[in-house]
Amino acid sequence: MSDGTGVDTERETGGTEAIDPPASFVEQANVSDPAVREAFAENWPDCWERAADLLDWETPYDTVLDDSNEPFYEWFTGGRLNAAYNCVDRHVEGGGKNRAAIRWVGKRDETRTYTYQDLHREVNEFAAALRDLGVGEDDVVTLYMPMIPELPVAMLACARIGAPHSVVFAGFAADALATRMERADSEYLVTCDGYYRRGTAFNLKSKADNALLDVNHDVRETVVVDRLGDELGHHLPSHQRDYSDLLDAHAGERVDPVPRDAEDMLFLMYTSGTTGEPKGVKHTIGGYLAQAAWTSHAVLDLEPEDTHWCSADIGWITGHSYVVYGPLALGATTTMYEGTPDYPDRDRVWEIVDTNAVDVFYTAPTAIRAFMKWGKEYPERHDLSSLRLLGTVGEPINPRAWKWYHEHVGGGECPIVDTWWQTETGGMMISTLPGVDPMKPGSAGPPLPGVDVDVVDAAGDSVDAGEAGYLTVEKPWPGMLRTLYRNDERFVEECWQRTDDGGYRYAAGDGATVDGDGYVTVLGRIDDVVNVSGRRLGTMEIESAIVEVDGVAEAAVVGADDGPDTAVFAYVSTESGHDATAALRERIGDHVAAAIGPFARPDRVVFAPDLPKTRSGKIMRRLLTAIADGDDLGDTSALRNPEVVGEIEAAVRNE
Ligand code: PRX
User: Fold this and answer.
1) Where are the domains of the chain?
2) How far apart are the C-alpha atoms of 349 and 367, rounded to whole Å?
3) What is the reported pTM?
4) Residues 6 or more apart from 532 whose CB is under 8 A from it?
5) CB atoms closer than 10 angstroms to residue 409
6) What's the rounded mean pLDDT across residues 227-245?
7) Centre of ligand 1 from the C-alpha of residue 429, in Å
8) Nearest Cα to 537, choosing from 622, 629, 601?
9) Which positions ≥6 away from 173 have C-beta within 8 Å?
10) Taking all residues of the chain, what is their mean pLDDT, rounded to a whole number?
11) What is the pLDDT of residues 75-93, one digit of tens each?
12) How close is the Cα of 278 to the center of ligand 1, in Å?
């Protein structure tokens, strides 16, 4: 069923049952004051100083929030700091040098541990190398790397010298990498020869080389990490640099962390939007790092002695904030895993938790549903008693999966935080505070202290409790995106709405309900963005790839319910003279995988004689979603070609 927001409200959504956090957790929690939300609200925006206080500032800021040029808000202005100093040096100086910063798990029996001292050494050496290669302040360095420790090292080396990084997920194809390098005018690339998946070596370098051929500007330097040794034959052309040679050449060198303005760019992160063009989300140093650190402290409850494992890939925002910046800013140990959860067996994740005595585990609902499907015998094989807190992010979690996670992973004793946030928000926005709030399985919870969200109707008025509407953020927050890179206009247009009082509210693009206790249940995207297995895909991006295939006339892509998961449906009409064949279907899937990445391959390609269009020629996507979901089609009177609907329905059922 769908309501006015186009959101499916019949999914298994938030329950009303409230579960109190265990007293043993509350006693030790970083934040356990029940009045914390009121205290923040009364003192807004200065309440956010509590987050900034978790950082070391080279020069103190003079203004918490500068809202003189809405919606280009600025935070902690006048302040200067360095993100690498905050994530590395200060822990070395503060007595933590021998604590593990990164525990990395690779292939079977392959592990590496970086103490804070080790991390300090390598970040310095690589920072010296980057500088020597010509990387200056504000030069965007693209990092196209798998889950190996050299990726956070490279991020922190960039941060150290004031060069913003742009990490491109290693699953992206050459085209996607080239586009991202071009949009950012990035003249430096750090990549890797490849990585291991399920015991097999995968080539990354050939994709990087193909991308480099396509980039229209001069790429000055390419650095390559040797991960595979001789496995795929590692031939580095003379104009490319070997990462370990560079470290050797700069062995023992130190580079002073460059003090940067709070509002200088820390990184760019490309994400899918509602057009075919990826959005370059710009995050700045002070506000982003403050929010990443504060939420790691208040929500993930991290302490320096904790081992944290966020299973997200660093190529996505979750990995930036909760594998790298948040945990390291707090001086904790962060875990990185290169492989997949079911190789060599379906207990791999629990084995890693057990061996590393992981305290806090943070993953996506899709992964939890896979664990649930595989069965409780896998977690039961291991001692998971080190776990103190569990988290989820990326999609709504259905109460059944929540309860399974609670019981079979958390032993009924770990609170679960269901954290809602986005690439654009930089850090968590809605979540229970595990030392304060009761949990309601399926509902993310109230907004975090200092965060002001609402659920509104099309006119911008708050909806009643239990009614679906649009999720908005009513006040700025420190970790917010500052703009879309070199596209202020799109930033204002897509992210913000005017309010009646002449101000701005942030439009999250999600549908949601809120209950009488202020708990928000997020229902899913309401725009042309789909979240598949925690990965964000723009339907337009996939459509643009499909129409490049010879024989395709037109394509429309929608996300459809697949149980609690989302499936990508591509409706395709062919050019005359081209038959809708299995071979064409295969070519479409292959081309999407080649243009964007294998994770974007549509689950279903449905051939249609024509796509349903309104009289003004717009494809009626709502209808295509309803067909994919097997829902009532509602009013189709606005269609110019209603006769195609029956044919499309038949194609979906029969193919
Ligand atoms: O639809 C929401 C969903 O993920 C979207 C953001 O995707 P991305 O920018 O890729 O960042 C993912 C990780 C932060 C949101 O607009 N989403 C994220 N967290 C939740 C969620 N949906 C429901 N519940 C959540 N906890």
Assistant:
1) 528-654
2) 10
3) 0.94
4) 559, 565, 566, 567, 568, 599
5) 23
6) 88
7) 10
8) 601
9) 207, 593, 594, 595, 596, 597
10) 94
11) 999 999 999 999 999 999 9
12) 17
Q: Check if 509 has its Cβ closer than 6 Å to any atom of ligand 1.
A: yes
DSSP string, 473-489: E-S--TTS--EETT-HH
Residue 488: count other Cβ atoms within 10 Å of its Cβ. 13
Q: Ligand 1 center to residue 451 CA distance, Å?
A: 16
Instruction: Tell the residue nearest (CA) to atom 6 of ligand 1.
Output: 422
Cα 211 from chain centroid (whole Å): 23
- Could you give phi then psi for residue 253, rounded to 5 degrees? -75, 150
Homologous superfamily assigned to 528-654:
ANL, C-terminal domain (3.30.300.30)
Backbone angles phi, psi at 158, to 5 degrees: -60, -50
User: Could you write out the three-class secondary structure of 361-419?
Assistant: EEECHHHHHHHHHHCCHHHHCCCCCCCCEEEEECCCCCHHHHHHHHHHHCCCCCCEEEE
**Span 1-7, average pLDDT:** 40
Q: Could you give the count of Cα atoms lying within 13 Å of 210 in the half-sphere of its Cβ?
A: 13
Would you say 102 and 334 are in contact if contact means Cβ atoms under 8 Å apart? yes
Q: What is the identity of the amino acid at 185?
A: D
Rg (CA), the chain: 24
Query: Could you give the CA distance from residue 250 to residue 550 in angstroms, rounded to a whole number?
Result: 50
- Name the burial class of residue 372, with classes exposed (0-12), middle (13-18) and buried (19+) by CB atoms within 10 angstroms of its CB: middle
Least Cα distance to 337 among 312, 315, 318 occurs for 312
CB of 295 sitting under 6 A from ligand 1? no
Which helix (H) or strand (E) segment holds residue 24: the answer is helix 23-28
- Render 56-107 in DSSP notation, one character per residue: --SB--SEEEE-TTTTS-EEEET-EE-HHIIIIIHHIIIIITTSEEEEEE-S
Cβ 311 vs Cβ 367: under 8 Å: yes
Nearest-angstrom CA–CA distance, 250 and 248: 5
425: which DSSP letter? Answer: T
How far, in Å, from the CA of 7 to the mean position of ligand 1?
A: 15
pLDDT digits (tens, 9 = 90+) for 118-171: 999 999 999 999 999 999 999 999 999 999 999 999 999 999 999 999 999 999
Answer whether residue 446 shows pLDDT above 60: yes
